[in-house]
Write a structure and sequence with these properties.
419 residues; alpha/beta; TIM Barrel; eight-stranded parallel β-sheet; two-stranded antiparallel ribbon; 16 helices; 11% strand; binds flavin mononucleotide
Length: 419
């Protein structure tokens, strides 16, 4: 039987020295099915592994005898100051990990001085997150097949005074997650001997996350969903109605969202330079280069590999953020050196929340920022602008402006095939 004890930030500073440590604590605290929902990818986890491998393939050449006293990671993201080039990615159902998990994460981000993005699939309503956490809040939007529902959500975000809107465009269909079918935590959730045993082996999670929430507010519901779709999480269905997958989102939709939303607009899930250019043409202020943390297309290239060609195309005109695979400060330094305005983290923050609620999320951010500063100092960088691609040794197929495929040769090959 596994459990957890409440950990404050001081204890976490000795117990969790890296994001991997927080991952281990999260694994102990959560039923296996929930842990896998957070930690794994899709199909055979190839994109998930590829995201980490791509960061590992980049090396940093240290610079010495530089005055790096007073090094700082402060920067500006979307025109406002941020303590570091870091923001929290939107993740659905964070309250499945810790009671009011979304509020804990948002408070940790606010305390650290970085932006927090709330998911359409949040269990806590956006208005409550705004009231209790404050800080810089962005709302992530999935596009429903019924567009009027999406418009309502934009209206709600405006009334709740969210700073920026993120439209996620990389999920036109439900991804295939075989591990959830095997571990019994698929959607809709059905109690089986397997998942019941898993849950019973984590009584503290069951009490603190499920029972306390149930006694206070009833079953967990995705509170940002339009009223007619708000069903208990355990009864949600994959399909066109309950979960917001749209396979016909167009750039015209994005233009419409642009007209409806006055604040900064980011398009999330952009991996190709042509799509990045389209997003900017449609009025977006920036893009998030992301393969959803390796959770959607298992054959996807890693975002850090896609980054140079996107920066080449729209850098200077728009904000370029990156997520997927960031687990260390050196990953942040590499992305910034390759032209990203900043990075976002999904799993790293969730492991913190699952390990210890708000202090856990705070510890995750602290680890990443401390590591980033250390890497900057070793690299001779006093400020973020001192990080540039000359410090990096990139594998040959990371060339700027290319995917490592000779575009002309690829076009000729496809013509030969008649494609
Ligand atoms: C458990 C979980 C839930 C997620 N839910 C959403 C979501 O509701 N909306 C969204 O745009 N992205 C969602 N994502 C993707 C993240 O926003 C982000 O792109 C990804 O986690 C970044 O990769 P990383 O986890 O390696 O940092 C989710 C990711 C995880 C791990």
């Amino acid at each position: 039987m596994t459990g957890y004890t409440a950990l404050d930030i001081e204890r976490l500073r000795t117990k969790a020295l890296s994001i991997s440590d927080l991952r281990e604590l999260a694994k102990r605290h959560l039923p296996r099915g929930i842990f896998e929902y957070v930690a794994r990818g899709t199909d055979e986890d190839r994109a998930l592994d590829g995201n980490a491998r791509a960061f590992d393939e980049i090396e940093i050449c240290p610079r010495v005898v530089q005055d790096v006293s007073g090094a700082t990671a402060q920067c500006s993201i979307l025109g406002k100051p941020s303590a570091a080039p870091l923001a929290i990615s939107p993740t659905g159902f964070a309250s499945l990990l810790w009671l009011d998990g979304e509020i804990g994460s948002a408070k940790a981000a606010a305390a650290a001085g970085i932006p927090f993005a709330l998911s359409t699939g949040s269990i806590t309503p956006m208005e409550r997150v705004k009231e209790e956490a404050g800080g810089r809040l962005w709302l992530q939007l999935y596009v429903w097949p019924q567009r009027e529902m999406t418009r309502e959500l934009i209206d709600r975000a405006r009334k709740a005074d969210y700073e920026a809107l993120i439209v996620t465009v990389d999920t036109p269909v439900a991804p295939f997650r075989p591990y959830n079918l095997k571990n019994g935590f698929s959607i809709p959730f059905r109690l089986s001997s397997r998942n019941a045993l898993d849950i019973m082996c984590h009584p503290r999670w069951l009490f603190n996350v499920v029972f306390r929430r149930y006694l206070r507010s009833g079953p967990m519901v995705a509170e940002n969903y339009p009223q007619q779709l708000r069903v208990p999480v355990k009864a949600a269905k994959v399909g066109k109605f309950n979960l917001p997958f749209s396979d016909n989102v167009s750039w015209e939709d994005i233009r419409e969202f642009r007209r409806l939303w006055d604040g900064p607009l980011l398009i999330k899930g952009i991996m190709h330079p042509d799509d990045a250019a389209q997003a900017v043409n449609a009025g977006a202020d920036g893009v998030i280069v992301s393969n959803h943390g390796g959770r959607n297309l298992d054959a996807s290239i890693a975002p850090i590999r896609a980054l140079p060609s996107i920066v080449d195309r729209i850098g200077g005109k728009a904000t370029v953020l990156l997520d997927s695979g960031v687990t260390r400060g050196s990953d942040i330094a590499k992305a910034v050196a390759m032209g990203a305005s900043g990075v976002m983290v999904g799993k790293a923050g969730l492991f913190g929340v699952a390990a210890a609620g708000q202090p856990g999320a705070q510890r995750a951010i602290e680890i990443l920022v401390e590591e980033l500063l250390r890497v900057m100092i070793f690299s001779g960088a006093r400020e973020l602008r001192d990080l540039d691609h000359h410090l990096l040794r990139l594998p040959a197929d990371f060339r700027r402006g290319s995917y490592g495929v000779d575009a002309a040769a690829a076009a000729t090959a496809s013509q030969r095939r008649g494609g």
